[in-house]
Amino acid sequence: LGVIFSVKQLLHHLQQVLETHEVNWKHILCFVSSLLVYYKAAQPSLRELLSRLLSSAFESYDLENMITAFLLARQGALEGTGLFLSYSDWFKMSFGGSTGYHASSKKSLVFLLKFLSDLVPFEPPLYLKVHILHPPYVPAKHRNLLMEYVTLAKTRLADLK
Predict the structure, then answer these.
(1) Which residues of the chain are modeled with pLDDT < 50?
(2) Which of 14, 21, 38, 137 has the highest local Cβ count within 10 Å?
(3) Distances (CA, A) of 2 to 5, 9, 23, 42, 119
(4) What is the CB neighbour count within 10 angstroms for residue 111?
């Protein structure tokens, strides 16, 4: 496929498949890793795809796009910083500033924090630490929402020791 199609075309086809089919995530994540390893141009194209997925997720509060974006970003991060952003950098870039996807409304902020909270029982410590050390941007008037998440995440980390 890599010989016939450009990286942009492959990621466009990947997005179409993700939107219209049930997928084998093992194959999808292996495919993403292969793209990053074998094509230098894959990183910016994958970042564009992640941006589109997050934009769509927050426009329609679509949990599927949110899950997909996080899975793909985490897979990219597993390939190392030479091939893709670290998870910490991706999370900070996506949610760390006042222009983040979630910063447009309280509803968007609640959507993000509920998503992260729902993941807490299943999250490896690495991701919980990133979310605590580099929390999403939250306006001062909604700081209590973030503190609820941070408390939950810290409790989970304490349970995991």
Answers:
(1) none
(2) 14
(3) 5, 10, 20, 11, 34
(4) 19
φ, ψ of residue 52 to 5 degrees: the values are -65, -40
| 8 and 45 Cβ atoms separated by less than 8 Å | yes
Q: Two tokens at 160?
A: 């995991």
Residue 62 — left, alpha, or beta (φ > 0 → left; ψ -120 to 50 → alpha)? beta
Integer Cα distance of 47 and 39 in angstroms: 14
Q: Provide the pLDDT for residue 96.
A: 92
**Residue position matching structure tokens 């894959």:** 42
Yes or no: say if 108 and 101 are a contact pair by the CB < 8 Å rule: yes
Distance between CA atoms of residues 51 and 83, nearest Å: 18
Q: Which residues contact 30 (CB under 8 A, 6 or more apart)?
A: none
- Quote the CA–CA distance of 31 and 134 in Å, as a whole number: 29
Global pTM exceeds 0.85: yes
Q: What's the Rg (C-alpha) of the chain?
A: 16
Residue 41 is predicted with a pLDDT of 82
